[in-house]
Amino acid sequence: MNTIFKKRILSALISVSALTASLATSHVAHADYEAGVTAAQNGDFATALREFTEAAEAGLDLAQYNLAILYYTGQGVEQNYEEAYRWTLAAAEQGHLNSQVNLASLYYYGTGTAQNFEEALRWNTIAAEEGQHPGAQHSLAKMYQLGEGTPVDLAKAHFWASAALQNENREAEKLLREVSALMTPEQLSEARRAFAEWMLTL
């Protein structure tokens, strides 16, 4: 399972239109966040840290997400996995998809918090089901294959590997072959039928 955290700030990938979505947060928080994005893009991570912190404390999930990455990577601040976990959790609980995936990774590896496969499974499930995140779907499939945080369930492993592959996660192709080799023809037939039925609901 590969962590989704990157060794750089991902703010540049977030469009300005996305900033208007969090209507509950103040205009000041959005302004702080935008200032943080500009600073990060210019390589001024100390300023980005200050601006993201103000916006994150005001409750803006995008700022919480990027602040967590700064703490995780040690850009503009001393590396602090506990703070990375704290802000990732805050954003994930607000429904920020990439934060949910990152939180699952932190729980899986025990980074900044106690290792907890059950919580890793729970957050991967949220991101896989509600956000259709291919990385979370692949991780979920692997956890069901290995029985991490859950009893081994090859049918669910096959299902989520199929979903990840459908969403163009290339690693899922190998995983799907591995899981399929462990299943009976009847189990495979049932798993494929269940996935096909699920696809019709999307």
What does this structure look like?
The protein is mainly alpha-helical and about 200 residues long. The protein has 2 domains: about 1-115, Tetratricopeptide repeat domain (Serine Threonine Protein Phosphatase 5, Tetratricopeptide repeat, Alpha Horseshoe), CATH 1.25.40.10; about 135-200, no CATH class. It has 11 helices and no strands. Helix 8 (about 135-145) runs antiparallel to helix 9. The two termini are about 25 Å apart. Residues about 1-20 have low confidence and may be disordered.
Characteristics:
202 residues, mainly alpha, Serine Threonine Protein Phosphatase 5, Tetratricopeptide repeat, 2 domains, 11 helices, 68% helix, 0% strand, elongated, disordered N terminus
SSE order and pairing:
Layout (H helix, E strand, L loop, with lengths): L15 H4 L7 H15 L3 H13 L3 H13 L7 H13 L3 H13 L7 H14 L3 H13 L7 H13 L4 H11 L3 H16 L2
Helix pairs in contact: 2-3, 3-4, 4-5, 5-6, 6-7, 7-8, 8-9, 8-10, 9-10, 9-11
Task: Fill in the CATH topology of the largest domain.
Answer: Serine Threonine Protein Phosphatase 5, Tetratricopeptide repeat
What is the CATH architecture term of the largest domain? Alpha Horseshoe
Radius of gyration: 19 Å
Sequence stretches where pLDDT stays below 50 over 5 or more residues: 1-21
Helix content: 55-70%
